[in-house]
Amino acid sequence: MTLQALIAPVVAVLLIFGGVVLSLVLTGTRVQDEAAVRRSLQVVQSAFEIMGTDLGRHAIGLGRSEQATEKLVDRIDPAWLQSRMEPVRGQFGAVGVIVIDPDDAVIYAQGGGLDTIEMERRQDFADKVRDLPVSPPDSLAGFTTIDGSLYVAATSIIAPLAPGPDSALRHGVLIFLVPVDDTLLTRLSRDFLIDGLRVEMPPDIVASIGMRIEDSEGGTMALVTWTPEAPGRELFDYLLVPIIVSSLLASLLLATFLRTAVRTTQQLKKGAAALAESGAELEHSETKLKAIIDGVADSIITIDERGLITSANASTQRIFGYELEEMLGQPADMLVMEGPTPVDGSGAARVLCADPTVNETEYRDFWGRRQDGGRFTLDAAISHITYRSAAVAIAIMRDVTERRRAEETLNLLSTGMALVDRDCRLLLANRSATRLLDAGDGLTNSHGRIGATRRHQMEELRDLVDRACTAQEQGSAEATFAGVMTIDRGEDVRPLSIMVAPVQLSAEAEGDSQVAAIFIRDLEVRQSVPPDVLATLFGLTPAEARVVVELVKGKRPQEVADDLSVSLNTVRNQLKQIFSKTNTGRQSELISLVLSSAAFVSEHGLIIDEDEPREDWQGPDAAKSESL
Predict the structure, then answer these.
(1) Which residues, including other chains, have CB under 8 Å from residue 213's CB and lie 6 or more apart?
(2) Average pLDDT for residues 164-177, to the nearest whole number?
(3) Are residues 529 and 602 in contact, defined by beta-carbon separation less than 8 angstroms?
(4) pTM, whole model, 2 decimals?
């Protein structure tokens, strides 16, 4: 009796505790099932809100385009409307369209079963929608029923993007209708992980859970329902055996379940809220990205695999003079053609086509074509990417006409000129300097740095460059001149004559932004000028100009007479005429005048006699006395 007395209370306590635990488990499973239903309801509501927002965005884009009033209200253009509906149908499938003029009359209705509705029914529907508070640039989206079928509707006024002061106060209305049919519900079920999503219409509504859609009078218009999840029932079946075996273990598992259920519910609430906001955030991000791209000064266009333009920023319209509608869908070579640097004979069109096999960025020079027929130089960087399984080429183009003109101006100089930074890194070189550096005779260009073949002269050159940059940085009085030097090239070859001067790139540049200009003259190169140039400059006859050319080469009068096959007296008489016309009295004065004239400024006006020997060369030490 004593043992039974002890066992009975223990068993009673265990039974009572087990009942309490079982009751708690049943309560917990019911709470979880209700939470799953609420979560599903929030997901379904968010799905249709996002769909309505996207449909409204398309309605705004079409209804407020520049040609909307002309193509939809003033004169309905079905072909134009159908072409603009392709992106909408690509996203939503079957889409109905209704166009209402400012007098509330339906002037167009097509798609989604609208063509089977009687005109009187269309007018009734249009009258209801026309009274909705639609104001630009917002769109009103919601649900409506037509002939017992549920539709998602989005509206927008029909008005130009930038209306003039005389534009009408009333506008037409554009309505998009997407039927909530099995195809749409199947896609939403797949995308949002909801089983058995379906629509029940009155009076056949039998489901007890779902998203109830009411009309303006508060009546039930439709019920969007689904097959609810039952996570609580599955958990109860899983815990039934452990509860019977050990009440204590069941209590611990129940506590764990309750704690997990609370966390899961909180996460689901956050996820549903984030999903509801994702549509607005995505639209904001797209608007922000477009504003950034339109703010770039360079032209940015995208091209598909056929070489057709698919997008262009605002700078493209400014640089080329075309409107956006004139460029979209057109070949890219309407803007560019093969430029100064040939593209292997393939032309600009093939280079601009999207190519998924190209991974590196290509840099090309093109000729740009403006709408007015003007041509200018373009510097283009072309990248190839894959977006949504389609190859896309992105071309960033800049008008470099002024920069190229400046470079060509420097190339006219007969004196070599190179810009370097403090570490002698080559920034820019004209044609004369490039020829000397490529020869590697005295001066070198090693990995983008200018140097000298002899070590001590390399150090001297770097010291002059550093001094020029420092003088400019400190605002020294020596900021316009740093120094001169010569670069030896051997016992029998005249040296290169070098002058280094500082150059300020901009008023705000400081520190490492300082650069120096290196001017290079090759004393070994004999330069002469065409006789017709001298004849024009000083009013000489052709014979007198030829005499001056020979004297500039360093020849004596007798040598000039021999080379020109004339007598010495003839040369002397010509010299008297030349002295009179040039207002000089001696041969050295005449040569000095010619060498300082404009004839020796441009490389294109010179004849460079690099192969003619220089008999008056006295060795490397004598060359150091020659000035630049």
Answers:
(1) 143, 150, 220, 221, 222, 223, 224
(2) 70
(3) no
(4) 0.41
